[in-house]
Amino acid sequence: MEKRFIQLSELSEVLDISSAQAYALVRSGELRAIKVGGRGQWRVEVAELEGYIQRMYQQTKTFVAAHPFGHDQSQAG
């Protein structure tokens, strides 16, 4: 059976970010997560992580389209 939730340590490994960055993503609400247990440990649903990754791909695509790499052809001389 595949896991439904992952810990923040796993999240940071998947995204190759620091644990502080993973914590900031869930605390800000940018990546939905839940707190479980008496110690309130964060868990991220794998489906939420996949949705976040897809949103980041779309945001990156939009950014690249608005800020193309290279010279502005209208200013080429």
- Annotated CATH architecture: Orthogonal Bundle
Q: Please provide the count of β strands.
A: 3
Count of helical segments? 3
- Describe the strand arrangement of the main beta sheet, using strand numbers: 1-3-2
Low-confidence runs: none
CATH topology name, in short, is: Arc Repressor Mutant, subunit A
The portion of residues assigned to helices is: 40-55%
Radius of gyration (CA) equals: 17 Å
Q: Roughly how many Å apart are the termini?
A: 61 Å
Major sheet summary line: 3 strands, antiparallel
Number of domain modules? 1
CATH class: Mainly Alpha
In sequence order, what are the helices and strands, one letter per element? EHHEEH
Describe this structure in words.
- With 77 residues, this protein is α+β, with helices and mostly antiparallel strands.
- It has a single domain, classed as Orthogonal Bundle (Arc Repressor Mutant, subunit A), CATH 1.10.10.
- Helices cover 51% and strands 14% of the residues.
- The chain has 3 helices and 3 strands.
- It has helices spanning 8-15, 19-28, 46-66; strands at 5-7, 34-36, 41-45.
- The protein has a 3-stranded antiparallel beta sheet.
- A hairpin with a 4-residue loop joins strand 2 (34-36) and strand 3.
